[in-house]
């Protein structure tokens, strides 16, 4: 087997592995498959962690993961697929970041690894064992890579920034309420 053939096989295996995991996580959110909670349950969870509106956030996250994962596995529209999946994983990593890096402590390790794999596939391309190759790379042009990654990075930054702002506002409100309670307790003690 030549080095070129090994590269194609390696890219296929990476696409199938990362794409399959992304697909499974996305369908948990969208359809409740594989022990997931579907749009309703995931939407409620998204609201609780600051992504609002919850159902829209659950749908976007599920589509980025299931859609991006499916397209990555097929090797179709690889720049857009990789960028979408990476954006979804950046949103997940933001949720897990306060827990540190390692997954066993609830950290962002898993999300970061999937996001990195998706980004690498968007950049490297799908290889010859792909639908992009079979279709003459119609939706896998060189200019699409930076465009897809930049657009996804911009949207992801806005979404995560809005989430962080909501969480900061909620934290400030809780602290102010705690201060009011402390002031009231002091009045009763006098």
TrEMBL record:
User: Pfam families in the record, alphabetically?
Assistant: DoxX
Q: Which InterPro entries match?
A: DoxX, DoxX-like_oxidoreductase
Which chain regions cross the lipid bilayer? 143-162
Q: Does the keyword Cell membrane apply?
A: yes
Per UniProt, the keywords (alphabetical) are: Cell membrane, Membrane, Transmembrane, Transmembrane helix
Q: Which domain of life is it from?
A: Bacteria
Where does this one sit in the cell?
Cell membrane
- Main location class: membrane
Membrane topology value = Multi-pass membrane protein
The family assignment reads: Belongs to the DoxX family.
Protein name from the UniProt record:
DoxX family protein
* Native organism: Streptomyces machairae
């Amino acid at each position: 087997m030549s080095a070129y053939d090994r590269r194609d096989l390696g890219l296929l295996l990476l696409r199938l592995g990362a794409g399959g995991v992304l697909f499974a996580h996305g369908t948990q959110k969208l359809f409740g498959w594989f022990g997931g909670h579907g749009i309703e349950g995931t939407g409620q969870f998204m609201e609780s962690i600051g992504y609002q509106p919850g159902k829209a956030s659950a749908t976007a996250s599920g589509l980025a993961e299931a859609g991006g994962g499916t397209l990555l596995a097929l090797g179709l529209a690889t720049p857009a697929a990789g960028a979408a999946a990476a954006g979804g994983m950046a949103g997940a990593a933001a949720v897990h970041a306060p827990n540190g890096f390692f997954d066993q402590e609830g950290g962002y390790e898993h999300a970061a690894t999937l996001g990195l794999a998706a980004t690498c596939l968007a950049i490297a391309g799908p290889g010859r064992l792909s639908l992009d190759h079979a279709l003459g790379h119609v939706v896998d042009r060189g200019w699409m890579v930076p465009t897809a990654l930049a657009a996804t990075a911009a949207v992801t930054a806005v979404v995560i920034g809005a989430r962080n702002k909501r969480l900061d506002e909620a934290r400030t409100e809780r602290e102010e309420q705690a201060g009011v309670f402390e002031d009231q307790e002091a009045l009763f003690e006098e």
